[in-house]
Amino acid sequence: MTLDSHGVEIAKRKRATRAAEEVRKQYAKQQRRKIRTGTLPSPNLNISIDSYTSFVKHLESSTRILALLGAGLSAASGIPTFRDAGGFWREHDATQLATPEAFAKDPSLLWQFYNYRRHCALKAVPNRAHVALAKLAAKKSEYLAISQNIDGLSEQAKHPPRNLQLVHGSLFNVKCTNSDCIFLETGNFADPIVPALELTEQYNISDARFPLKDIPKEDLPHCPKCRSLLRPAVVWFGEPLERSAIDRIHHWLDVGKVDLMMVVGTSATVWPAANYIHAARIAGARIAVFNTEKPGMDDDAAMGLREQDWFFEGDAAATIPDTFKEIFGSVA
Ligand SMILES: [Zn+2]
């Protein structure tokens, strides 16, 4: 019998090492199989196995799920938002441009801005997160998504309308500017919306080095009922949200306990977004944030995350489908 310097039989130690190596190999094989079959987070994402597992379990057992969808959801689809601080279009600060006052002053400029945004949104395709959220909506009938996005990509991903509440309107809805007229057209996908707004191939209208056309008022979109100017049916800075949208959300919250609140692609620091998170938490929800920026940990803040909550850092187009794959299958 040969002993090593610690008095342990060398043959025995070798057997133990081989056994440990076998266990390690089996474990690695098992982990690789789990990744393949979607029961572990993708190794490319910064998601811990513990938070992944606990989230998947909670998502599966949740019935009443509220989601707040922001610009970050559409970032991977290439949609510029102009809503962030410092968001500019040409030389215009978007917070000054997307206002009723700016439209009244220069409807030609505003219609060129919105016709361009319609054009971009029409060319974009929904990403894997839009598709995964639409799958969630199809599976969980009591799910409600509050979307701040106006790009129509959730709708394009076949998100059922009964589970989707837009709060900032849509680029593809237009309404009359005459307050006595109730004309509203939904689902207008014409590009350009009127011939005068046709984008030329030669240059990018967003590039301030090129001059914009000054389009006469009569060539801009007009109401078929009263001939007043039409405007995009989106919520501009300084305008209140649609009453019907707020009522629907409040009604949904009033029904009872909320199991899960998902905050997707938004820092949700402003009213009323922050209020929905607060209300969901009071109704018992655990919060899951999918965003590139981590929310503050301050408990007084609406979204101060707590121990039972989750933060999935990164592009929602990657983290949402990855955390949903075990329940809803992989999204190509
Ligand atoms: Zn009208």
From TrEMBL:
GO cellular component: nucleus
One Pfam family of this chain: SIR2
One term of GO molecular function: histone deacetylase activity, NAD-dependent
Species of origin: Heterodermia speciosa
Family: Belongs to the sirtuin family. Class I subfamily.
Transmembrane segments: none
Keyword NAD among record annotations: yes
Binding sites annotated in the UniProt record for Zn(2+): C176, C181, C223, C226
Keyword check for NAD: yes
Protein name as annotated: Deacetylase sirtuin-type domain-containing protein
Signal peptide feature range: none
Keywords of this entry: Metal-binding, NAD, Transferase, Zinc
All copies of domain Deacetylase sirtuin-type, residue ranges: 42-332
Superkingdom per UniProt: Eukaryota
Active site: H168
